[in-house]
Amino acid sequence: MIFNNEFDGKITLAGYTISEKLTSFYEKTIKHINVKVEPLELADTTGLRAGCDIDNYPIVKIGLNLNGEKYRIKESLFEQTVAHEIMHAVLWYEGFPEVKALNDQYVRYRGIIISDFQDPVINKRLVAEGFNSEEKIRIETNDTLEGLAESHKNQIPLVKFPKIQKFILSLIYLYHYLELKYTIEDEGVWKLFKQRFRYVYPKLCIFLDAIEETINTIGYETPEKMINLMKKILNIFRLDDDFKVITRC
Ligand SMILES: [Zn+2]
After folding, report:
1. How far is the CA of 125 from the centre of ligand 1 (A)?
2. What is the pTM of this model?
3. Ligand 1 centroid vs 175 CA: distance in angstroms?
4. Rounded to the nearest whole angstrom, what is the distance from the C-alpha of residue 172 to the centroid of ligand 1?
5. What is the predicted pLDDT for the residue at 10?
6. Which three-class secondary structure string do you get for the chain?
């Protein structure tokens, strides 16, 4: 992988000395499977802090923004970020789905869509491994609520294309639903999020109800469940011809 053994015996990745925790996480999750992980330096122009590129599977590129100004990964979040991106490769190996945009103008939303579906699965596993904390999930929820209030106040649409606007916004809801209901199981924070989100986007309520119901019926934590969930939700928004659900198999 990306690890280099240096003369002092310490294992480093992109210049950072890796803890035993990350090393053993790597050995446990990905070393035994037929996936070769390679680092890829990301520039600020990508607008990304990190990413995982599975298009050349079984070679998986873990993109890390290490030198950018705006989106550089904070040092304190480095290992957590690497573990997160490794997990995207593991999910792909396990047969979890991603999406392919069939419409060229939607290609840029692929990453957001994949994250909103896969990240709750990853974060749940990372909480169990000690990389993510429940506290982090609560802070993130708060940040989302503040961001929503801000864009609502300023009337800035988060998505340029009207046809997928409701879909992309609803995925933010889906993401937090899975995190709050299933990962940290915090009914209080979930209720607050639900209320505030629906207050900002009253026209979405009918879709949000459908999303909650679909998740409760299908689930999300196995490849099969996630494939069904993605297909069902694309269908709710009538986007079956715009995105295709894909898996490695
Ligand atoms: Zn992710």
Report:
1. 12
2. 0.91
3. 11
4. 13
5. 64
6. CCEEECCCCCEEECCEECCHHHHHHHHHHHHCCCCEEEEEECCHHHCCCEEEECCCCCEEEEEECCCCCCCCCCHHHHHHHHHHHHHHHHHHHHCCCEEEECCHHHHHHHHHHHHHHHHHHHHHHHHHHCCCCHHHHHHHHHHHHHHHHHHHHCCCCCCCCHHHHHHHHHHHHHHHHHHHHHHCCCHHHHHHHHHHHHHHCHHHHHHHHHHHHHHHHHCCCCHHHHHHHHHHHHHHCCCCCCEEEECCC
